[in-house]
Design brief:
The chain is α+β, with helices and mostly antiparallel strands. The protein folds into 3 domains: about 15-175, Jelly Rolls; about 210-260, Orthogonal Bundle (Arc Repressor Mutant, subunit A); about 275-315, no CATH class. It has 12 helices and 10 strands. The protein is globular, with a radius of gyration of 21 Å.
Amino acid sequence: MSLPRRRDFPQGALLDTIDARRDETPAAGQKPANEMSRILRTAPIHLAADPSGGAIAHWHHDPLHDVVEPMTDHVIMAYNGVIQRRERRSGRSVEVGTFRPGVAVIIPAGSSSRWDIPKPVDVVQLYLPQATLARVANEAGITSTDLLERTAHPDPVTSRLLLSAADSLEDNGVLDVLFRQQLTDLLAMRLLAAHTGRPLAYQPAHGGLSPNILRRAIERLRSDTDVDVSLAALASDAGLSRFHFCRAFKESTGLSPHNWLRQYRLEQAMVMLRDPHSSVAMVAASLGYASQTAFAAAFRKLTGETPSDWRRRGG
């Protein structure tokens, strides 16, 4: 997986808090982004947060020898970089493991330990509020939400899902929010299934959306206005939980809501690019991309061509 271009960190309250705390003794129950910035002494390459309090962050940091203080949310990590040995100490307990692609690290909310990592690390992290984990468990009929602490634990499914986040954020507000919400719920379900230490009694439901509910969902996704197309809004309109809506929508269409909307936006882009009076910049802005560069990267990812090359070829 290629490393995304380093971006300017948002100049908001989070950065102010991070800067203010760099050299302070950390207090208990810090937000994960703040605590990670303190011990890693850098800003993330990318940080995407949701109103729920959850976030996905991509870090590239130097060797680490420090104590990770208790955090308010669960932290799940996946590594993409050199294979290396590491140690985690908690009280008298010492765990030695190997960081490599295909393993996952889980730091449950409220836990604290010392980490010794001798080489630079490329890592993607999910900050998962307990409220989100409990909601997904409730929607799936699962009773236990006590996550196990994991250190370099083999789990290629969690690793692959989390690493996909670094390459899937496209600087398109609507698409990125929908992607993060889907990914967070999917990862929460995976954690409940594989990292609570209890057998999963959940039996997945089958069947897609009814024709009327599917039509309403597609109408909402196709809306050119500021209609809310978040996963919560789509699920509420369908009278389903977020978890069950995603499953049923994919069974009905063959695509997740995010991938369906992404494909639809690509079709819109192609129609607009056929109009010689529409510049690439105008198309990018009308489809909600933060810049022409972001739109061109997303377009090329799906078609193999830049918008300008596609237009010159005759579409």
